[in-house]
Amino acid sequence: MTGPTVAIAGIGSTEFSKDSGRSELRLAVEACRAALDDAGLAPADVDGLVTFSMDSNAEIAVARELGAGELTFFGLVGYGGGAACGTVQHAAMAVATGAASTVLCYRALNERSGRRFGQVAAGILTGATSSAIDSGWHYPMGLATPAATVAMAARRYMHAYGATSADFGAVAVADRRHAATNPAAWFYRRPITLAEHQESRWICEPLRLLDCCQETDGAVAVLVTSLERARSAPNPPVVIRAAAQGSGVNQYTMTSYYRDDMTGLPEMGVVGRQLWAQAGLRPGDVRTAVLYDHFTPYVLMQLEELGFCGRGEARHFIADGAIELGGALPLNPHGGQLGEGYLHGMNGIAEAVRQVRGTAVNQVPGDGPVLVTAGTGVPTSGLILGPG
Amino acid sequence: MIAASIQAAAERARAVGLSAPRLATDPVNLPTIRAWTDAIGDANPVYTDPDAAARSVHGGLVAPPAMVQVWTMPGLRGAAGGRADDPLGVMTATLDEAGFTSVVATNCDQAYTRYLRPGEQLAVRAELLDVTGPKRTALGEGFFVTTRSTWFSGAEPVATMDFRVLKFRPGPRPAGSAVEPAGSVAPIMRPPVSPDTEFFWAGTQAGELRIQRCGGCGGLRHPPGPACLSCGSIDKPDYQVAAGTGTVYSYVVHHHPPVPGKQLPMVIALVELTEGVRMLGELTGVDPADVAIGLPVRVRFRRVDDDLVLPDWRLDRPGALPELTISVTPTVVVATALATRDFYPVHHDRDFAERGGAKDIFLNILTTTGLVQRYVTDWAGSEAIVRAISIRLGVPCYAGDTLTLAGTATATAGGERLVTVTGACSLGDHVTGTVRLAPEGTRP
Prior knowledge:
The structure holds 2 protein chains of 2 kinds. By secondary structure, chain A is an alpha/beta fold. Chain A is built from 13 helices and 11 strands. In chain A, the strands form 2 sheets. Chain A has a 9-stranded mixed sheet with strand order 3-2-4-7-1-8-11-10-9, with helices on both faces. A two-stranded antiparallel ribbon of chain A has the order 5-6. Chain B has 3 domains: 138 residues, Thiol Ester Dehydrase, Chain A (Roll), CATH 3.10.129; 118 residues, CATH 2.40.50.840; 126 residues, Hotdog Thioesterase (Thiol Ester Dehydrase, Chain A, Roll), CATH 3.10.129. Chain B contains 10 helices and 18 strands. In chain B, the strands form 3 sheets. A 10-stranded antiparallel sheet of chain B has the order 1-3-4-5-2-15-18-17-16-14. In chain B, strands 11-10-9-12-13 form a 5-stranded antiparallel sheet, covered by helices on one side. The chains are: A alpha/beta, B alpha+beta. The interface between A and B is large, with 40 and 40 residues.
């Protein structure tokens, strides 16, 4: 997409909590300042900002509070958590084209103490938007939470391939095991067993409580700039080797139930094919993967869609221990959104950066590339990062 | 402490045993039967047409079995609760004193030894079966009180009824629970409608499930939109009426969090229609454990209010009865309450009902029992012999709502027919139950 000319020079975050006690705007500013500090840059260096269309903090508000100067690039990326890696892709394209030189990507949310995504948000049905019309085929019928939308696809996947709730649980157990040794994780020192997963209550069958990610207050920011500028930052540059967005045929937001097949994530396939082509890599080359994990079943489907295993084979891939630290594809070494915190995928990008730098708390050895993906079930995005 | 004293009172009431017989104010009589069949909408001639009844298996007029409780209702001024040996009255007073002041009927299981005829003088005797609690319920903490009434014609027992009420202390109520508290349910979420989709919602209003069909290439699509997904045409949007049948392609059982206007747990199914497109809807009237991918389903139109009819789904079982939809107007609620001689004000006085937290007056349990009986005998025929009706109440059916009865018949080893009945209104299932019929051709 950009060639190896754009890099991530800084990452920053707040603490991950259940009640930040601060405004989302302040959280955004704190994370952005931390990313600037990490990159050894000043607010005046920033000339671009990108966030999620779901973020409540306008780019200009964050710029103002940061004390940034004039902006030459700003933008929003849509589709919930599918935006995460897309913000970095947009920033990278801006840097590569010269539209901006230094772009902050951020996401700030009081998702536990404020608006909880796990609850029903009937407001989505108001307004004459295509999204409202789309939701009108699901919300009034009672399918009105993210967990429920995923459960519908998960049930069909189980039917097609023989996957079980315990197979989904294996993802949660791995994430929580990794989070247990990550002091920044909400579930630090709190691993779970598969039995605990199986005993956790139903949220929306076939999903249990422990198949569902956390609700978190916090913010994460990522600073994108030229590789040249990143080389003079305090930390080793992290090159964006590939960046892509993807949407499938007959795509909906969380309810793509009207395609011939419902057991995959074609939009992630679109992302994956671009990533491998751009970077000239294959799945086997990846050192560790940070896969979006708001709900466990979509982790299995991502493994298949991205080519780490065949269709329907993710449960065997996982059962063989591949996703554990020390396995063939250590998954979410920070604990993911099930273990560390739910920052709409942005904390996963920060973890991928740390893995490339060699500074992660659960560092996966080697210098191979790191894959990170964004929201599943929605139009989405992904990155491959590597050392400069 | 409270529980112990209530159980002690229950023990004393149980020790009393059968209450003394309480006589019906009038013998079984045709005017009261006619008022009841008129209000319930039951046109079975064996109840009211002497000639037809004479030609029937009964050989003459009989009373609807589900009326049995009506004969001994105390009337507006004749409270039964004052009697020291009336177990429900005694337990009601005890629980009122302990603060469990509200009441809701939850179960009614009636069994009939034979049909009654005009002129028979009934008496009823009651006993306490059990008191359980305190239990946390959706309505608040409370005790379930179960009594058994036995009706006698002379010395002959002719019918029994196990009746369970929940006496509860009104408390904060979680939404979406099994027994839905009056007025606590947020309004159902409404679909926005655009010029591209209005044909679909006009269809549900008309009792049609409409699929977008391209006037050019004939391609079908759902959900609808401005273009044909097969040929790309935006010039000739049209639709076809679906057969209303399909199979479960996938489904979920939603437990948490609460969903406005829905009872939990609920089954939501993605249905693959016979025509090939998929459509999502609530699958009602089914135990979630009985749902599986591939099961045949049939659409059912559920009227939410004047402006919205949602397509629901039901398992398309062999033995399914045709559905019966009843418009529960305020007149129906009041007329049936009076025809069942139930003068409790929640069934005729909206101000009173609202003060108690209900959103309007609502159907009483005697009427629900009668409607279930009517539904089954409408299908089984005027000479079907009803042996028992067993119902459990769910959400209240308020004035202004629509009650849709659906059922499935199965034969038992002994030749009896069991009909499982569900009555759904806009809040969810108002009643679930079974009706037991004598083998076909049985003479009373």
